[in-house]
Automatic annotation (TrEMBL):
Belongs to the OSBP family. It is found in: Cell membrane; Cell projection, Filopodium tip; Cytoplasm, Cytosol; Endoplasmic reticulum membrane. This is Oxysterol-binding protein. Phosphoinositide-binding protein which associates with both cell and endoplasmic reticulum (ER) membranes. Can bind to the ER membrane protein VAPA and recruit VAPA to plasma membrane sites, thus linking these intracellular compartments. The ORP3-VAPA complex stimulates RRAS signaling which in turn attenuates integrin beta-1 (ITGB1) activation at the cell surface. With VAPA, may regulate ER morphology. Has a role in regulation of the actin cytoskeleton, cell polarity and cell adhesion. Binds to phosphoinositides with preference for PI(3,4)P2 and PI(3,4,5)P3. Keywords: Cell membrane, Cell projection, Cytoplasm, Endoplasmic reticulum, Lipid transport, Lipid-binding, Membrane, Nucleus, Phosphoprotein, Transport.
Length: 726
């Protein structure tokens, strides 16, 4: 003990004169200790007990709170919250909240609420996410104010969910005694409902397997599954008519046991009695902004089904739904009907292949021996074995980005500039859908001077692309139709980081609609598990779409591709907002880049774009979509029209498509030697390569020189001097 400790005055607790603790004092300290323990533990806020018709509308509350983030910049961050009518919304600042730039939306009535008084923390569990909140100022009064108001708003919201307004009762429930049944009938045991749905799911899946068995006789799936589907329909009708299940639990449970193959059947059955679904209590699905993209595929199907029933006035949505249903039921069709701008079939039909000549040949490649000396380097300059390739070219991959060009046709026919921006944003997002199943292979690198054309009268566009530079590698493309002109030049930087490879695109994508210009840049892509495990791809970053006219900027759209968090809870999510020239939010977007994009907020969100169904055996054929399968097809009638530089004449790519890996590797090496030889000749003669069909613009981008299609028809490419590329 130091000298200072010896001479320090004794505190009352350590004073020798302190009296002996009596039993009463012990009991008092024990009560105090239990109170501290209770405040240090989480206290669960109880749900509403019974219905109350005269709950007073709670007051609005707003202010700054701390919100915990996991990724990125994990920790506590200030956010401005607004609590109104049981809905808690928040933004980065109060100004952003007023402008509609929300970061999230929480339905307090559908959330489980817990609080810890000692640390003044509040947790809201929405099933999809848990929101951790804390009072910014360490004052007990402010904490109690938020807790009290959250309790009041939660009770008000739960009561509001349970009880329908009288005017809705007159429309959806004309009988006066139907509401009285709600008070007398016990709520269904959801476990029994779940069990029945599970049995139905197993039955439908067994019928689906039987239907797809080649040796089995032809079976009409609609007829075979009619009894089972009607049973499910009666369950749902009973639940909705008597209000026996509210909230999102029944929706989620139903979607989990709704097989995708039965979606057309369910839609047809439900459409026979739309009044029950439209007139009954709406399904309320709590989805926050931060987790809205994590809607499972099954819930996406639910939204699609609801949209099909409730959006009967939209012929465009119905047409897309019909197309997807036909693709789901009949994947083997190889006939593609030409469509005009309105999507109606015409008399001409183009026969296109529905699968590649050969499945993917699995041959092991020691990637580590190739990549270990190239960590952190640009892999575009590293020669890779042909086993790592897919039988498509980078120029063809650029053409894949216009698969959903009908979105541009719709945008061109939309007069509202902000709604037009919504369709263009959906088109920009749709360009990434084909990459979801393609992480296992890389496209062939184009040879300098290599070209590719795609003339699709059924889709109303014609597309050309050319490799305009080799070092650095630059690919340029131009696509045009009667409604739009689309062009871009893309260069990539590839970086290998040991377990993953990052692909950073450079360049700007351009779109022109009747004089209006749109521009955006692509986001970063990353392929994970390069050396071992299941490879998967993700895209992350911000895509900013600018709309400009001769009079100035009109609208702007920012689409954020979210990076996957731990556990892949938000895998492939995108969020976006369309703003006017003053920065005011006009439209909100959310979804997944590999599935669908929605306009608005659930449950009233509208599906703007949905990815086409994949071929049944796409895993065996490089994960190609039906559109990708058609890109490298060389028809007899095309051979005389195409230049010899067209990708479809490339022998190594064709041999890989046919399953001849050894021959493809041999041809690939020969073609690379020819390219190095041509480059050496140019350097020795102080010459540079001049692209044939593209030219540099004033902004240093590559644009079409407008000669390709004229040369194609007269006198033809056969009379041109074309270098030997392969």
């Amino acid at each position: 003990m130091s000298t200072e400790d010896q001479i320090a005055p004794l505190s009352p607790k350590t004073s020798p004169a302190t009296p002996t603790i009596t039993p009463f004092t012990q009991r008092k300290e024990s009560n105090s200790s239990s109170e501290d323990n209770r405040q240090d533990s989480w206290e669960l806020v109880e749900d509403l007990q019974g219905l109350t018709e005269n709950i007073q509308k709670p007051e609005k509350l707003e202010g700054l709170l701390l919100k915990k983030r996991k990724w990125p910049m994990k920790g506590w961050h200030k956010r401005y919250f607004l609590l109104e009518r049981g809905i808690l919304t928040y933004a980065k600042t109060g100004t952003d909240l007023k402008k509609g730039r929300l970061r999230g939306r929480i339905d307090v009535g559908l959330s489980v609420m817990a609080m810890k008084k000692k640390s003044m923390c509040i947790d809201l569990d929405t099933e999809d996410s848990i929101y951790h909140l804390k009072v910014l100022a360490k004052t007990r009064d402010l904490f109690e104010q938020w807790v009290t108001q959250l309790r009041h708003h939660r009770t008000f919201r739960q009561n509001e969910i349970t009880m329908e307004p009288p005017e809705l009762l007159l429309q959806s429930d004309p009988t006066a005694n139907r509401r009285e049944k709600l008070n007398t009938v016990n709520f269904l045991d959801l476990s029994e409902c779940e069990s029945a749905l599970l049995e139905l799911n197993l039955l439908l899946k067994n019928m689906e397997v039987l239907h797809r068995t080649f040796s089995a006789p032809a079976i009409n799936l609609l007829q075979v599954g009619l009894f089972a589907c009607v049973s499910l329909y009666l369950w749902i009708k009973y639940v909705f008519m008597f209000g026996l299940c509210t909230g999102n639990k029944f929706v989620y449970m139903l979607s989990c046991y709704w097989p995708k193959s039965t979606k057309p059947i369910m839609t047809q059955i439900f459409s026979t009695d739309q009044e029950v679904l439209v007139g009954s209590r709406p399904l309320r699905q709590q989805v926050s902004s931060e987790s809205r993209g994590s809607i499972p595929e099954s819930l996406s199907e639910f939204f699609d089904a609801k949209e099909y029933l409730l959006s009967g006035s939209s012929s465009e949505n119905e047409a897309s739904d019909d197309d997807s249903y036909v693709s789901d039921v009949s994947d083997s069709t190889s006939v593609e009907f030409c469509r005009n701008e309105n999507g109606n079939g015409s008399n001409c039909a183009v026969m296109r292949r529905d699968r590649l000549p050969s499945t993917r040949m699995n041959e092991s490649v020691n990637l580590w021996s190739i990549l270990r000396s190239n960590i952190g380097k640009d892999l575009s300059k590293v020669a890779m074995p042909v086993q790592l390739n897919e039988p498509l070219n980078t120029l063809q991959r650029l053409c894949e980005e216009v698969e959903y060009c009908h979105l541009l046709d719709t945008a061109a026919n939309t007069h509202d500039p902000h709604m037009r921006m919504v369709y263009i944003a959906a088109f920009a997002v749709s360009a990434y859908a084909c990459s979801f199943t393609r992480a296992g292979g890389k496209p062939f690198n184009p040879i300098l001077g290599e070209t590719y054309e795609c003339l699709r009268q059924d889709k109303g566009f014609r597309f050309i692309a050319e490799q305009v530079s080799h070092h650095p590698p630059v690919s340029a493309c131009h696509c045009e139709s009667k409604n739009y002109t689309f062009w871009q030049d893309v260069r990539w930087k590839n970086k290998f980081w040991g377990k993953s490879m990052e692909i950073v695109p450079m360049g700007v994508t351009h779109l022109e609609l009747f004089g209006d210009r749109y521009e955006w840049s692509k986001v970063t892509s990353c392929i994970h598990n390069i050396l071992s495990g299941q490879r998967w791809i993700e895209h992350y970053g911000e895509m900013s779409i600018k709309h400009s006219t001769t009079t100035g900027d009109v609208s702007h759209c920012k689409v954020t591709f979210l990076k996957s968090r731990s556990g892949a809870l938000n895998a492939n999510e995108v969020e976006g907002m369309v703003t006017d020239s003053n920065g005011r939010v006009i439209h909100s977007l959310f979804g997944k880049w590999n599935e669908a994009l929605y306009l608005g907020k659930p449950p009233s969100a509208t599906c703007i774009w949905r990815a086409n169904p994949m071929p049944e055996d796409h895993e065996q054929y490089y994960g190609f979509t039906q559109f990708a399968i058609e890109l490298n097809e060389l028809e007899e009638g095309l051979k005389a029209l195409l230049p010899l530089t067209d990708t479809r004449f490339r022998p190594d790519q064709r041999l890989l498509e046919e399953g001849d890996i050894a021959g493809a590797e041999e041809q690939k090496e020969r073609i690379e030697v020819l390219q190095r030889e041509r480059r050496r000749v140019l350097q020795e003669n102080n010459m540079t390569h001049s692209p044939r069909f593209f030219k540099r613009a004033e902004d240093d981008s590559w644009v079409s020189n407008g000669t390709y299609w004229d040369l194609r028809k007269d006198p033809g490419f056969s009379k041109l001097e074309i270098p030997v590329l392969w």
